[in-house]
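Case study 2.
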Amino acid sequence: MSRTYDLLIRIRKKIGLTLALLALSLYIIMLFTYLVFLTTMLLLGLLIVVPLMILAFIRKDRKFILRRFKASCWMLGVLILILFPSFWLIPQQIYVRANRQTTLITPDVSVVDDFADEFFSHYLFSGWNSKNFTEKAKSVSRFISLKIDWKMDYETYGMSGHVATPAEVLARREDDCQGEAVTMASLLLNSKFNNTFPYVWVVETPWHWYVLIRDPAKGPLSPGWEKYVEVYQKNGELFPLNRDGTGNCDSCKGMPEYRWEPIQLIFNAEETLFPVNFFEAIWIGWSSTGFFQHEIFENFAEDYLLFIIIAAFILAIPMTGWLTYMTKREGERKERKKYRSLKILIPKVFLIGLLIILIFIEWYFTQELLWDYTLIIAISQLSTISCLASEHKFWKLLRIEK
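Prediction:
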């Protein structure tokens, strides 16, 4: 009986370590696949697990380090599953990202060709020859907004930041700004437009994609133009389509200017351009948190207090279990069972839940003052709580543990 139990324990440990290594591998793959678009959310997971690992290394206890390593990797794996529950699409997403110029800019595939015919029969095409370049471009942009319903990737594909090809978008006739942007670029470049739009680029920012075009009468831009892209947009050398999320409809209510974040990446069928270096792109993503400040909080404005209380305690339950596993346990198995008892776990969940509520409230009331840094500060405070709650001394001080 004893041998069987020991064997089961060994198998459980190996399975746990194997799952941890798989989760870490998947996390690294997704981190580099998405680069700067979702890196904000992916990298924030490290702010929680890295300090806990540093504390483990300080103790110089090999078993303790291994325990925390496994638990940290599991947490990163859970983060991936939360962001990308349709994980079976990950290989396809890696391929699309790695081959963006051939997969996302597809002007002459059959579905885009048919979409061009659909535009030519639409009322927005009427009077085409009498329109100037800007009016023609706005007509195409408006057509996209009418024919493609805006819908969150998480709802459509079960993946945050899903990168859809024009064919996928046109099959569903729904997607977010990314799908609209690549479909618009492909439509503008379609051969049936007779080279009306020879200069077209897709722009990627932390939370929005849009299209840049240039009037062919102005000729090509000089090499290195991507470093001055914001200036060129302001002086009219480049014209943005759907930057404000309105489909260039003057009567539409678009995104507020706080969502017009700096550009991280520009590409078309021939080239990929980087207006900033990699580390600047990461910082842009980390500090462009207007999406969190207003989009998320505003959705729960009416029942905000109830929302944060429910969200805090839901988050506190797995967090308490995770931290309990990572805490160095002393004594025999009976003592460990006592350590896990509900009499101890319930007060821990309650206290951690209260601390998370305070973080949410602070985040809400400081967003207008600190703006770009409130998300990082909130995650850093959550990391501090994790570090404290992973120590026996903290709970002994509060007299929750003996």
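The CA atoms of residues 57 and 197 lie 58 Å apart.
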